[in-house]
Amino acid sequence: EQITPTSTPTQKRKETKRKSNLFTPGKKDEDKNKSDRLGHGRAIPIKQGFLYKKGTNSINRDWKKKYAVLLDDGRIIYHPSFHDYENDSHGKEIILQRTTIKIPGSNKPRVALRSSSNDNKLNDVTSTDSISTTAGKIETPNAKKRHRRLQQSNTPNSTNNSTTSKSTSNTNGGDDDGDENVFIIVSLDKQWFFEAQSNEERDEWVQAIEQQILFSLQNIESSKAARAGKTGGTTIADSASVQAIKHIPGNGFCADCDQLNPTWASLNLGALICMDCASLHRNLGTHLSRVRSLELDEWPPELVQVMRSIGNKLANTIWEVNIKNRVKPQPNASSSERERWIRDKYEQKLFVAPLHILPNQARQTLIESITKEDLYTIILLLAHRKVTIDEINSSLLHLAAMQGNVTILQLLLWFGADPFITDTNGRTPLQCANGDCIRILQTLTNNQTDFQQQQLKQTIISPQQSTLSRQQRPPASSPAPPYDKLPSTVI
């Protein structure tokens, strides 16, 4: 039989067959890779699931659904969707090491009393039935808030049914009052608001997160002990030093709200404060308050000496005297109440003890106080700013270094004194120093040398860099003094 052209295989038919052979096994590989992606080569999830997160942007503070994962290395990572979690993309992490967790309406961090079962340690992420819906209940006063979430969840970007089920349930009603299922992760300078599907789920998250915070702190203690053994214990404060600071008169309570057992410190105030007040102190700026964790940060001997020399009782006899009709915040005070009190106390100096000297006597009074090592008068003079930086630089810093009193030297340096200024004889404070003041000033000198070498490297411009436009070049300005860039451990 004669073969017609129509029965002859054409090039087009062969191409179609090759494409089928090419892509069919690829789809199987893709499915296999997709199943292998979950958790492969990544930290082990302790708990995971959908949570609402409140936006921190001042313009957009809406609640948006996120897929959150609590990991065994002390982190929470939240993704815009479960698909992003699968691909390990667009995730934002919270390091729990220096955070605490709170529930709105509680005065202190809460630990769930109920122990969760092993079945609850890892949520089912493949079934949309894991997020239940409740219908037919009366709408709560927070319907507007829920309605906004529903609108967000129904946007074109929302393709997963599980992403919209909670918003639907909350719009129809529910037993939460808007904040009932919310928990807050708090660090020194930031807060993350999350909301779970129910009270039970919220408590599970709170308990799991608090356990990870505890594990992280235990790891820090182990690391600190190991490093202390290598360095001979000269850099990191041991438990005896920490306990000595805590037992200074007044240090059993926060200097600003009387919270029991504060674990944070303001170095240049010489006072212990609680974590809630510490976050507000950090907003004041380091010229007013240098915040440091008493238990998590490194504490060289000179900083321990400063804290032991002052303490809350002495600090408040200076900063908290003329309160008149004002009421000091209590441990359960709101953040706004604390902030108003702290700013009035340290920034506006409304409660500072009076200073009964004439303006032209300030410098001589400071000289006498340094000689007598009268900390109360020195701190009071600096609080009233009755002496200028120029007056301190004109041999007063040299006098403090010569006295060998670490606390006085540190207070003057934090006030803004220049550690490299020379006196009328051309000597620097280091050349006049005695005792532990030598080590402090020597460290500053070494760091200045490193800073100058770094600045020198930055001034070397390659031929390619020299062609940058004027808009791309940084504005001409004198570099900041090196001691302004050093950590508070040193200055």
TrEMBL record:
<feature type="region of interest" description="Disordered">
    <location>
        <begin position="106"/>
        <end position="180"/>
    </location>
</feature>
<dbReference type="InterPro" id="IPR037278">
    <property type="entry name" value="ARFGAP/RecO"/>
</dbReference>
<feature type="region of interest" description="Disordered">
    <location>
        <begin position="1"/>
        <end position="42"/>
    </location>
</feature>
<feature type="compositionally biased region" description="Polar residues">
    <location>
        <begin position="114"/>
        <end position="135"/>
    </location>
</feature>
<dbReference type="GO" id="GO:0005096">
    <property type="term" value="F:GTPase activator activity"/>
</dbReference>
<keyword id="KW-0040">ANK repeat</keyword>
<feature type="domain" description="Arf-GAP">
    <location>
        <begin position="239"/>
        <end position="364"/>
    </location>
</feature>
<comment type="similarity">
    <text>Belongs to the centaurin gamma-like family.</text>
</comment>
<feature type="compositionally biased region" description="Low complexity">
    <location>
        <begin position="463"/>
        <end position="475"/>
    </location>
</feature>
<feature type="compositionally biased region" description="Polar residues">
    <location>
        <begin position="1"/>
        <end position="10"/>
    </location>
</feature>
<dbReference type="InterPro" id="IPR001849">
    <property type="entry name" value="PH_domain"/>
</dbReference>
<keyword id="KW-0863">Zinc-finger</keyword>
<keyword id="KW-0479">Metal-binding</keyword>
<keyword id="KW-0862">Zinc</keyword>
<dbReference type="InterPro" id="IPR036770">
    <property type="entry name" value="Ankyrin_rpt-contain_sf"/>
</dbReference>
<dbReference type="InterPro" id="IPR051282">
    <property type="entry name" value="Arf-GAP_GTPase_ANK_PH"/>
</dbReference>
<feature type="compositionally biased region" description="Low complexity">
    <location>
        <begin position="153"/>
        <end position="173"/>
    </location>
</feature>
<dbReference type="InterPro" id="IPR038508">
    <property type="entry name" value="ArfGAP_dom_sf"/>
</dbReference>
<dbReference type="Pfam" id="PF01412">
    <property type="entry name" value="ArfGap"/>
</dbReference>
<feature type="region of interest" description="Disordered">
    <location>
        <begin position="463"/>
        <end position="491"/>
    </location>
</feature>
<dbReference type="Pfam" id="PF12796">
    <property type="entry name" value="Ank_2"/>
</dbReference>
<dbReference type="InterPro" id="IPR002110">
    <property type="entry name" value="Ankyrin_rpt"/>
</dbReference>
<dbReference type="InterPro" id="IPR001164">
    <property type="entry name" value="ArfGAP_dom"/>
</dbReference>
<feature type="repeat" description="ANK">
    <location>
        <begin position="392"/>
        <end position="424"/>
    </location>
</feature>
<feature type="domain" description="PH">
    <location>
        <begin position="44"/>
        <end position="214"/>
    </location>
</feature>
<feature type="compositionally biased region" description="Basic and acidic residues">
    <location>
        <begin position="26"/>
        <end position="39"/>
    </location>
</feature>
<keyword id="KW-0343">GTPase activation</keyword>
<dbReference type="GO" id="GO:0008270">
    <property type="term" value="F:zinc ion binding"/>
</dbReference>
<dbReference type="InterPro" id="IPR011993">
    <property type="entry name" value="PH-like_dom_sf"/>
</dbReference>
<protein>
    <submittedName>
        <fullName>Uncharacterized protein</fullName>
    </submittedName>
</protein>
<dbReference type="GO" id="GO:0003924">
    <property type="term" value="F:GTPase activity"/>
</dbReference>
